[in-house]
Amino acid sequence: MHIVVCVKMVPDTTLVKIDPETNTLVREGIPFITNPFDTHALEEALRLKDRYSCQVTALSMGPPTAERVLRRALSLGADRAVLMSDRAFGGADTLATSQVLAEAIRRIGEEGPPVDLVFCGMQTIDGDTAQVGPGIACRLDFSQLTLVDTIMEINREAKKIKVRRKLEHRYEIVESSLPALVTVVREINNPRYPTVPARLEAEDAVLPIWSNDVMKLEKKVIGLNGSPTHVRKIFAPQREKGEIIDGEGDKKDEAVQMMMDKLNEWDILTVD
Questions:
Q1: Per-residue confidence (pLDDT) for residue 98, from 0 to 100
Q2: Given this model, what pLDDT does residue 240 score?
Q3: SS3 for the chain, per residue?
Q4: Which of 53, 107, 130, 221 could be 226's S-S partner, Cβ–Cβ 3.0 to 4.6 Å?
Q5: Which residues in the chain land under pLDDT 50?
Q6: d(Cα 260, Cα 27) in Å, to the nearest integer?
Q7: What is the pLDDT of residue 15?
Q8: What would the pLDDT profile of 213-254 be if each residue is shown by its tens digit?
Q9: In the prediction, which pLDDT does 55 show?
Q10: The pTM is what?
Q11: CB count in 10 Å sphere of residue 144
């Protein structure tokens, strides 16, 4: 069984700053990390490798520096890593991104064992759209299983997979055919850490970099040309400081009245 895991390099959002004049991200001095949801996707693929002796390929699209997330994937146990990097891929929205990744997965399946499973994180912390995984599944015509928190069973002979999906107020058990694409939530596992020898070995690994000269995709369907959506403005949300109302002891009635007055002021509650 061959599993492909999509991983993305994202800015550490706890340190992101916005330029107040240009309304763009200030990238200087900001560390980049593996998208947290993708670490859970990789871990689940590696657990299946431990259980079924699968082959795991890590795949990423980004600038040349994105190789660091792929080297980490190798240090954790991935068998192979491929980086999609080309200026022609830059500025892609979710539609164009899923186009490139789907074609890369198709090519990986043609070069090696056919791809049976694709794992993605539920979403990325920089875009939060949760659209790329489903977009890949649609382009590859794979079964689509989203918000998965448990891989219950895989029947390789029957080419079936059974999972549990975490919905808002309930869980859903779903059985589907392979090949399939699975997006995972954080609760599915606790990611492992690499060993020092594995990290050193991963640093020496040769990573293939596929540009569009390799992929030969039409430029009208990739990058900015293939992106029908555009970000017009980005800004940090501004929040006013809250007000603490003291309601201790004999101040309870006064506190209640102040709260009622505030609700009335905000047109949330009308007080006669």
A1: 96
A2: 72
A3: CEEEEECCEEECHHHCEECCCCCCEECCCCCEEECHHHHHHHHHHHHHHHHHCCEEEEEEECCHHHHHHHHHHHHHCCCEEEEECCHHHCCCCHHHHHHHHHHHHHHHHHHCCCCCEEEEECCCCCCCCCCHHHHHHHHHCCEEEEEEEEEEEEECCCCEEEEEEECCCCEEEEEEECCEEEEECHHHCCCCCCCHHHHHHHHHCCCCEECHHHHCCCHHHCCCCCCCCCCCCCCCCCCCCCCCCCCCHHHHHHHHHHHHHHHHHCCCCCCC
A4: 221
A5: none
A6: 45
A7: 63
A8: 999 999 999 998 999 987 776 666 667 777 777 777 777 888
A9: 96
A10: 0.83
A11: 18
Return the residue matching tokens 């040349």.
64
Q: How far is CA 27 from the centre of its chain?
A: 20
**Type of residue at 69:** V
Instruction: Kindly state the tokens that stand for 198.
Output: 């594995």
